[in-house]
Amino acid sequence: MTAKEFMAGLQLFEGLPPRDLDSLASLASEVRFDKGRSIFLEGGEAKGFYIARTGMVKIFKLAPDGREQIIHIYGPGEPFAEVPVFEGGAYPANAVAIEESLLLFFPREAIRRLLTREPALALAWLAVLARKLRRFTVQVENLTLKESPQRLAAYLLDLSERSGDADAVELDMAKGHLAGLLGTAQETLSRILKKMTEAGHITVKGRRIELLDRAALEALAAGDQRL
Questions:
Q1: Within 10 A of 68 (CB to CB), how many other CB atoms are there?
Q2: Phi, psi of 116 (to 5 degrees)
Q3: Where in the chain is the domain with CATH 2.60.120.10?
Q4: Model's pTM, two decimal places?
Q5: Which H or E run contains 32?
Q6: Tens digits of residue pLDDT in 89-99
Q7: Could you give the residue ranges of the DSSP H alpha helices within the chain?
Q8: Do the Cβ atoms of 40 and 48 come closer than 8 Å?
């Protein structure tokens, strides 16, 4: 699949005519990152944004004591580091490949020039950023106001809605990374999954989790029920 064909299937570029996709594809360069390789560092000059073609990328910040807080994990088809395209300056967090990843890189200045000429692309971009802002708002609320079981229940329900499957979900990241995203330890996550299983809310089969009692998970996520 060419870069143009891949981009044509992305929501970010939905509805763009072939001529505009050609212009975008001509700006993109493919960059491959081995597992564990840094893509950019917090404070580094923001030279452009990325879209994952394959693999997975972790966005995170480090506390002064070295503790890591995962902000998001992006997979195939998902853009990241778009805000500096508009804002300029530096990258606000770190990015590292957690799997061997093939990324499309779009240079900042070239994209800015294209956006001034293509209002349809600018509107699509704003829609994507709005969805991300809504997800980050929920994430901040979960991390600050909810306990770990609530966060996990809310995450499973959100993943179910995004995948369109009300009965089961496939975890889109390793459990260690999921624990970091939820702001807890991997051992704590394992205990919560075990308790949810014992309570009859879920069954766990590797990365596949069957949602046996969705109502109970909703009550748990809302704080109306405790494990």
A1: 11
A2: -70, -25
A3: 3-125
A4: 0.70
A5: strand 29-33
A6: 889 899 999 99
A7: 3-8, 18-27, 83-87, 108-117, 119-145, 148-163, 175-181, 186-198, 214-222
A8: no
